[in-house]
Amino acid sequence: MVGLFYEAKARVVFGDWDSASGEEVASKYPERVHFLKINVCEYHDILALFATALAKYGRVDHALSNAGVSEQENWFDPNLTVESVQIVPDQTTLDVNLLGALYFARIAVPYLRHGSKEREDKSITLLSSVAGFKESPGLFLYSTAKHGVMGLGRALRAYLPGICGIRVNTICPFMTATPMTSGIQDAWTRAQLPVNQAADVGKVCVEVVRSTGLNGKAFHVSGGSAWEFEANLDRLQPEWLGEEQSALLNKGQEVYGKVCRALFENKEPFR
């Protein structure tokens, strides 16, 4: 991912909890890449990442949230008893995949706006997953978190462009060959299903980031190719929801959006 943005002439500041790997990557591109060790569950770590970018380059133009971990334990273990369920389960997957994305997006907004001139291209790109819009049996926290990332993207895409000119898009990779998926890769290959390489997802991210004007889109990435699906969900809404309910839903969302914007801007609510 870092190398692809470097090749696209970007100046990159990135963070990771794995300092050895992060420093190794940064050392390959010393003139335009800077690494900072961070924990995305720590708000002040993400603040430090953006502050470093601003201090080093004087501006932040694009922000990409890519941190993620797999399921750490089975929250719905069939062997749970009334005794063992008393123990608070691990919530790392939620903290990294959802809370980290929320922290990142919140902090990104003022840093993207800082010193920005009218009509400058600014964006936030969020990494969700196929598990963010389809059921994924067994990935209880992971799927919950990635659905949350999709929800965050949808909530921001109609809000940020209007108030501060920041566009928001979401990437939803299918099976990607990474250490997180090593346990299922053999079965996947035997089934002759498509597999992304990390660079495939990275290339989609680069294209989305540099596509000025692109906002509110979500891309399913499979076998190295990408398909945008939010437009079809909206276009076909009268078919899967019904024309009457679709019209009411659209009107309600419009009213709700105006009320929220008025409240956030400390103006009189829409009536």
**Helix-and-strand structural type:** alpha/beta
Largest sheet: 5 strands, mixed
Cα shape: globular
- Distance between termini? 47 Å
Task: Tell me the radius of gyration.
Answer: 20 Å
Q: What is the strand content?
A: 5-15%
Total number of helical segments?
Answer: 11
Mean pLDDT over all positions: 93
Unreliable spans are none
Strand order of the largest sheet: 3-4-5-6-7
SSE string: HEHEHEHEHHEHHEEHHH
What is the helix content? 40-55%
Strands, total number = 7
Descriptive notes:
With about 270 residues, the protein is α/β, with parallel strands linked by helices. It has eleven helices and seven strands. Strands 3-4-5-6-7 form a five-stranded mixed β-sheet, with helices on both faces. A two-stranded parallel ribbon has the order 1-2. Helix 3 runs parallel beside helix 4 (about 90-115) and helix 4 (about 90-115) runs parallel beside helix 5 (about 140-155). It is globular and about 55 Å long. The protein starts with a helix and ends in a 7-residue tail after the last helix. About 25% of the residues are buried.
What's a concise summary of this model?
By secondary structure, the protein is an alpha/beta fold. The chain contains eleven helices and seven strands.
List the helices and strands and how they pair.
Blueprint: H1 2-7, E1 12-16, H2 19-27, E2 33-37, H3 43-57, E3 62-65, H4 92-113, E4 122-127, H5 140-157, H6 160-164, E5 166-173, H7 185-190, H8 198-209, E6 218-222, E7 225-228, H9 230-235, H10 237-241, H11 243-264
Parallel strand pairs: 1-2, 3-4, 4-5, 5-6
Antiparallel strand pairs: 6-7
Helix pairs in contact: 3-4, 4-5
